[in-house]
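Predict fold of Vitamin B12 transporter; 606 aa.
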Amino acid sequence: MTPNLRPVFCALCALATAPAVAQEAFDLDTITVIANQTATSLDRSGSTVEVIAEHEVRTAPNARLGDFLTFQPGISSSSNGPLGTTATVRIRGLGGAYVPVIIDGIDVTDPASSGGGFDFGGLTRSGLGRIEVLKGSQSARFGLNAIGGVIDIQSLRPTEDGVHGFVEVEAGRFDTQRGVLGLTARTARTDLSFSISRIETDGFSASAFGTEKDGHEATQANLYLRHQVAENIAVGLSAIYIDSRTEFDEFGGDGVPPFDEFNTNESIGARLFTEIQTGAVSHEVALSTFESDRVSFSNGVASPFKGERRRIDYRGSYDTGGIWVLNFGADYTEEEDLNQKIDITGLQTELLLAPTDALDLAFSVRNDDHSEYDSELSSRAALAWRIQEDLILRASASDGFRAPTLVQLDPFFGNPAFQPETSISYDLGLEKRFANDGFVRATLFHTEIDDQIFFDGASTRCGSGFGCFEQGDFKGQGIELSGRYAINPFLAIQGAYTFTDAEQNGEDAVRVPRHDVALGLDAQITPRLSGQITIQHIADITPSPFAPPTNKVGDHTLVHLNAAYALTDQVEAVLRVENLFDEDYETAGGFNQSGAAAYVGLRASF
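Predicted 3D structure, encoded as tokens:
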């Protein structure tokens, strides 16, 4: 055993004997919709998936969704300042370029961004519901870019028949006001939901060297509709709209006026789908589009960034009700920015086998034909073995690839000769379940990427004059521990620990914590009063080489508190306190993070 992994296995021993450890509790009926092409019971999935229930998202102690996701094992984040400024969520050390984000079936990653990823900076939990995080290289399931994993987000969904809704308002530090309206309707044939949210905040200085406030305002709307036209035919629509304006500080900080930097962003996406059942074969056809229109203003100069994605999907499944299910599909995608355009055609197949009641196997193969490159073949194999009713062994091996983004192919920053990155990923996990949805889980993981594209600020090869994209290698490995235990009907403890040893070109990967611990205590204090305290400790993190010498990227501990009191059966008062003990820290060198901040609000359902 290597010296680096010895403390990790000591931590595993401690967790195995403790009554509690991490993440959301789930019961035997919980399903995953992204591990395989067809919905799969979580205890039959060989891939590692974190499932976060809608009520956990709604009651999260953090407004920014990316910050809340870091309570899950293997997930970390960094941001360039307050709400709205650029934020990256990483899975097992790999950032936004390797983690596609899907909201209601719409790929919302930005085709015009330098890495092709999704910016979590302004996405709050308002109006959002269930979230799944799939880990490891997943190109055989999702095509290019899915090397770190996939984050699948649902918006609000109806949970009971009739028309229902809620209104939520919140106000607090930094002159922050947030409001959400959610409406749902369900009949025997139709599911309909709509949510709209608005947030405004004065914020604080993004730059650690400045004192001016960097504010943010945004409106977000989500729509979901599914209608059963006939017994074997359903049609549906999902849509998302985001309009935001965010003040920011240039890299390195703005210590002098005019403090005039700000970004505007208008993003809109839609997906039309139809589902048809023909005997043992089910079919789904979907058309989706996503457009991001961003403009960055600095010193009176406007820099536009516009990206578009259009996609058509077909997915089929043949299920005889026996020991095997055959899934298959095809898709075609077009992406473009202001300078270039690409298209990708994908074909995939997946075989799900259940040779015994205790064993499930999944095998996936996908071929992607990229307009700029040769075809790429991706594969995945996964196993779930229920050794005992309460003991599950999971294992998976998968490879993947990521094509250069449009920006990385542009000679000004990148290189038209760049070739796709290729990866291989393994994980091996063991889960023990206890009564009352308690569990403890340990997962070993390993990922390697060849020809990884990264930005080198010292490179002079391209025409930018201040750095270029180059290619190198990445290796990441470690262990994730998680669990939950109900001490009694009113008190539960949960937590997660992740050890990540990640290297980029032989050096420590930047902004990736080697040790990440999250502990939480949930309490139903009285029939009307509930509360939660969350403690998160980050240790051994390497700042970016761009960080100023005075940066505060390093070990830090955050404590968050939230509580809810039911004033009536339909109205509750809520309190959130982020960074309770006012920790002074940075996740991106030279950019501030929030100090202690309290927020109070009301939520009314009808």
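The helical segments are 6-17, 54-58, 65-69, 139-142, 406-409.
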